[in-house]
Design brief:
Helix 5 runs antiparallel to helix 6, helix 6 packs antiparallel against helix 7 and helix 6 packs antiparallel against helix 9. With 259 residues, the chain is mainly alpha-helical. Helices cover 70% and strands 0% of the residues.
Length: 259
């Protein structure tokens, strides 16, 4: 009995439109990608950050409460626990199974490790960048401008760019979209809504959300390619390297704070 692979590379001619879009983006020169992302981000900063914040302040309080509850999905804790347990259980079951089912379980474990690594790496990268850049959140009293910065402030109010929740939400959505393409539109819609909720409740500027989305999607695409090419039983090596990198970055933050 044949089992459909969990990993479907987006180069397939029958891939959905959003996978073909990733193929196009990955095929562009790095300089072109940076220019396009930078231009889009600058346009948002100049034209939309302040107006969207003013509009969001006028939203009904009950809607803000709903958005605040929904935005919790961007917290990486539940995803780390869920997919970590999923990968562990699949690995345990695969070691006690033979035949086609064992191959399917190894693939399922690789999927879990891929999603787990994506969340860890994207979240760690966002945490380091936002504290290095030190942009003021919209809630900071009278920052003077949407472009107020205190690099290395290591304070929550000055750690707005990029949005960590948006990074995690989009990274998770894109990762799940790539491994389960039939459900891709649903995953992407939820991820975009969670990311946008960060700007609507005033926790971030819209440009923070956009930057987090670009970061999260980039990490998901790069790691997907690595995991898709790596043998199933070697995936934990990738996870260990990614985990050590994230832990090293987290340990560096308290030192910067003391300095």
């Amino acid at each position: 009995m044949k089992h459909a692979p969990l990993f479907v590379l987006p180069e397939s001619a029958k891939a959905p439109w959003y996978q073909r879009l990733w193929v196009w983006g990955r095929g562009q020169p790095g300089a072109v990608q940076l220019v396009l992302c930078g231009a889009a981000l600058l346009t948002v900063v100049v034209g939309l950050d302040a107006p969207l914040r003013s509009w969001a302040r006028a939203l009904d309080p009950s809607l803000n409460t709903l958005l605040s509850t929904f935005t919790a999905l961007g917290n990486s804790g539940w995803a780390i626990v869920t997919f970590g347990l999923f990968a562990a259980l699949c690995g345990w079951a695969a070691g006690r199974t033979k035949g086609p089912r064992q191959a399917t379980l190894w693939q399922a474990r690789r999927m879990g490790l891929y999603v787990l690594t994506t969340v860890l790496v994207s979240g760690g990268a966002a945490l380091v960048l936002k504290n290095l850049i030190g942009r003021a959140r919209p809630l900071v009293p009278d920052p003077g401008t949407v472009l107020a910065f205190r690099p290395l402030a290591i304070e929550a109010n000055w750690a707005s760019f990029p949005s960590g929740h948006a990074t995690t939400a989009i990274a998770l959505a894109v990762a799940l979209m790539l491994v389960l393409p039939r459900l891709g539109p649903a995953f992407l819609a939820i991820g975009v809504w969670v990311a946008l909720s960060r700007a609507l409740i005033g926790a971030h500027w819209l440009s923070d959300v956009l930057a987090g989305a670009v970061l999260g999607a980039s990490v998901a695409v790069v790691l997907h390619k690595l995991f898709a090419l790596a043998p199933a039983k070697q995936s934990p090596r990738i996870l260990r390297v990614a985990g050590l990198a994230v832990l090293a970055s987290l340990r560096a933050l308290p030192k910067a704070l003391r300095a």
